Amino acid sequence: MKITQKYIQYILLLLIVAIAAGAYYFGYVGFIEKANSVKQRNKAIEARISELNDKETHRDEWTQAIVKSDEDIKKLLVKYGPGNTPEKDIMFIRALEDASDMTVSSMTFTQDTPLFVSEDLDENGNPVTELDSSMLSIAYSTTYEGLKKCMDFINGYEERMNVSTFTASTNQETGLVTGNMVLNLYGVKDANHKYEEPFVPGISLGVDNIFGAIESLEGLGSLDNILTPQINDNAADTADTADTEVNDNETVDNGGATE
């Protein structure tokens, strides 16, 4: 079959259209998609550069703000003690009695429980800062003036605490105010708060002296009241004795000290 010149022209035209279509779809369209992708990346990079430039502009301002914030946090944490323990709570109650002419007939306390734990860890894998709270409940007897002194003592105490609830009733015969009081005690565990066992004058503590006698009771006040701290919300039993039981394995009485 003889192919005419006109037929050849149609074939060439068809090939040109096919080549143009292929170049468009496989070349131009792909190039446009890549160009758009590059533009999007460029926009993200430009936004990041703008953000970094803004940070650099405010570097000194923000650095000073961070330093001030750290100083404010340190000043705030100074008001918190290094945690609470049964022996520390007992010594606090003794100081409260002396400062406010108050008699505490029984006390109940709980162990520290975390309120806040920092996500930052130290080299040992422990939280950099931990804020704990415990509860101390007491049954008290005092005068009206003594109750005011008690509140002043708690309010001005060097470690952070607050009165959660308290009850008070007046005995018409004696004029004394009696009731119950619940205190929330707070403590911080960090590099700047190291717990030290409270010093008890005249009493040797520790397993090396389980039968040691109290050398002197001068300045310690009366032990006429029973202090029965119990962990985990056990009820505090009141008796007219001079025994103090701590965590079912610490006992302080008039004749000796045992831990």
How would you describe this structure to a colleague?
This protein is an alpha+beta fold. It is built from four helices and nine strands; from the N terminus they run αααβββαββββββ. It has helices spanning 5-57, 59-78, 86-100, 144-155, and strands at residues 103-109, 113-117, 130-142, 161-166, 169-170, 177-189, 244-246, 250-253, 256-258. Strands 1, 2, 3, 4, 5 and 6 form a six-stranded antiparallel sheet that branches. It is rod-shaped. The model is unreliable at 212-259 (pLDDT under 50).
What is the N-to-C succession of helices and strands? HHHEEEHEEEEEE
End-to-end Cα distance, whole Å, is 119 Å
The number of E-state strands comes to 9
Count structural domains: 2
CATH architecture designation of the largest domain: 2-Layer Sandwich
CATH class of the largest domain, anyone?
Alpha Beta
Largest sheet: 6 strands, antiparallel
Output the number of helix runs: 4
Q: Would you identify the CATH H-level superfamily of the largest domain?
A: Ribosomal protein S6/Translation elongation factor EF1B
Secondary-structure-derived class? alpha+beta
Radius of gyration (CA) equals 38 Å
Shape: rod-shaped
The percentage helix is: 25-40%
Poorly predicted sequence stretches spanning 5 or more consecutive residues: 212-259
Approximately how much beta-strand content do the residues carry?
15-25%
